[in-house]
Amino acid sequence: MPYFPTSYAPGNTGRNLVRYLFKPRKLIFIIALSIVVFNVAPAYGQIDYFFGRHPSGLRLGLGGGVTQLATHYNDNPHIGCFIATLDYEFSPYFSAGIEGQIGTLQGIDTNNPPRQYIHSSTNDFKAINFNMKFGLGLINDFEPENKFQDAVKRLYLGIGGGVMKSNIAFTYDRSITDPYFDVKPYGYVPIIPLNIGTFIDIGNIFGYDRVEINPNYQITYIASPYPDGFKSTADSNLKGFYSLLSLTVKLKL
Questions:
Q1: Distance CA 89, CA 250 (A)
Q2: pLDDT tens-digit series, residues 60-71
């Protein structure tokens, strides 16, 4: 039985992860967003002071972003994703909550000659995860003097766990004969999301500490040998991941 090499192998997981985290377009987006949103002029009073009046509470969030798959394929387009969140903030720097996602993950074999019998994989997925976020302010309680410094103090790392419901459609390249063929297009898959982001308070909208925006970058590990719906070889144990760059508006209830 022939072996069809792929552009993504288990040994390359770390290298591919670094390449996805530090793509120039993502860094340019984050820098541009910082310049536009993070006003370095003095804020309207200390945001910590206003948050001190409401030190905890529920926040409802709605937003969107773009996903990108990273598995067998050499071409992984960015596709839109809808996000809804419900978090309980114990403080400005620690929260726990639920996140739901509805989106699409796609991989396409654009090699010439083609390497994959399954030419493309399109997953219209739904996912839910429980997560916690830990802000810089937990370990460095400096006093911010403007919105930029406050956003820095509220920088966080997050981790969670959840499940993704896959609904995958394939297209095929019939020029490849006698392929290995093991597919699993439907089902529930465990996921582990990792997050980095911050919160930016939007003052004078329903009062201070009521509305904030949340830029976030998420890498989600897919704990399944069928991350894009199929196995390329009988002994393959490849796991995949996808990235999500998003912006969410959150309202304190």
A1: 12
A2: 999 999 999 988
The kind and range of the H/E element at 161 are strand 156-172
Q: With contact defined as beta carbons under 8 Å apart, do 121 and 96 qualify? A: no
- Cα–Cα distance list, 250 to 59, 200, 205 (Å): 6, 10, 12
**Does an H or E element contain 28, and which?**
helix 24-37
Question: pLDDT value at position 84?
Answer: 98
Instruction: Give the whole-angstrom CA distance, residue 149 versus residue 142.
Output: 9
DSSP 8-state code for residue 146: B
For every residue of 179-226, DSSP letters joined together read ---EE--EEEEEEEEEEEE--EE-TTSSSTTSEEEEEEEEEEEE-SS-
How far from the centroid of its chain's Cα atoms is residue 251's Cα?
Answer: 21
pLDDT at 253: 86
Q: What is the dihedral of CA 195, 33, 199, 164, to 10 degrees?
A: -30
**Residue pair 118/233 in contact by the 8 Å Cβ criterion:** no
pLDDT at 230: 80
Q: Domains along the chain?
A: 10-252 (2.40.160.20)
Q: Is pTM, for the whole model, over 0.85?
A: no
Which residues, given as ranges, of the chain have pLDDT below 70? Answer: 1-55, 178, 180-181, 204, 207-208, 232-237
